[in-house]
Amino acid sequence: MTDFVLHPIGWVESPLQDRAAAPKQGDEGAPDAWLRFTEAAGPGLRDLTAGTDVLLLTWLDRADRDTLTVHPRGDLSRPATGVFSTRSPDRPNPVGLHRVTILAVAGTRVHVRGLEALDGTPIVDVKPVLDPIGDR
Amino acid sequence: MTDFVLHPIGWVESPLQDRAAAPKQGDEGAPDAWLRFTEAAGPGLRDLTAGTDVLLLTWLDRADRDTLTVHPRGDLSRPATGVFSTRSPDRPNPVGLHRVTILAVAGTRVHVRGLEALDGTPIVDVKPVLDPIGDR
Question: Is residue B70 one of the residues assigned to a domain?
């Protein structure tokens, strides 16, 4: 099958520098962060609104793409779990999916609450949340 | 910024052949479909369970990647909307996001309910749904 190329549209600016210290999901105390978009992506951002939630898609560039099974929480007493039943960042195509609340929009800079992605993580896409709300 | 390459892990088998006829979102009457995975992806599927919901990530390979603004529902009487505030398939990185219910798992073939993707659409990833449920 043909491969496909992702062109990043921006990157994450976050105090989170270290994967070992990153919370597993956003609601476990992840910090606020800035999304920095390219000028080229600018027109796509024009209707993002403070106070609303969006789904952010990232590229988890520090992931191990050869991983197909994992031990959630490092529990080696159980059989490994198929990676498509987990949110492990290590997976064949490490697209991160993060639901965040927009705090402010300033041109190509978007301030968000509760993002567990590491500083420098490339951004691939932003989508609105569909009702009913979820994926937190 | 560096580009990233997606390696498809499977493809959609669906009666939906025509983008013009496809419903806009899964709950508008999208058909049941089969997800066909490669043998290489097989170990990752081992814990997928009938009766549960998952998030399917696809590559919308018929999308226009130069699109940054759109008129939702073709309404030209209003200004165009920034694409990151829509679920338009036309966007810079056309990763589709679909919440589906698993009906059955048979090796590398997974039967799902309510998928609006076209026949032949490449599959990029599968993730579990996090509570609270949403994105339908």
Answer: yes
Instruction: Name the minimum distance, in Å, from the CA of A108 to any CA of chain B.
Output: 12
Q: How many domains does one find in chain B?
A: 1
The answer to whether residue B134 is domain-embedded is no
pLDDT digits (tens, 9 = 90+) for A107-130: 999 999 999 999 999 999 999 998
Report the CATH number that the domain containing residue B15 is assigned in CATH: 2.40.30.70
pTM, full prediction:
0.91
Q: Which of A59, A90, A127 to mutate to test the interface with B (most CBs of B within 10 A)?
A: A127
Q: What is the ipTM of this complex?
A: 0.90
Q: How far apart are CA B99 and CA B85, in angstroms?
A: 18
Q: Are B127 and B9 in contact (CB under 8 A)?
A: no
Length of chain A: 136
Cβ contact, residue pair A6, B4, below 8 Å? yes
Query: Measured between beta carbons, which residues in chain A are less than 8 angstroms from residue B46?
Result: 69, 81-82, 85
The domain containing residue B36 runs over which residues? 10-128
Q: Which residue has the tokens 């990647």?
A: B65
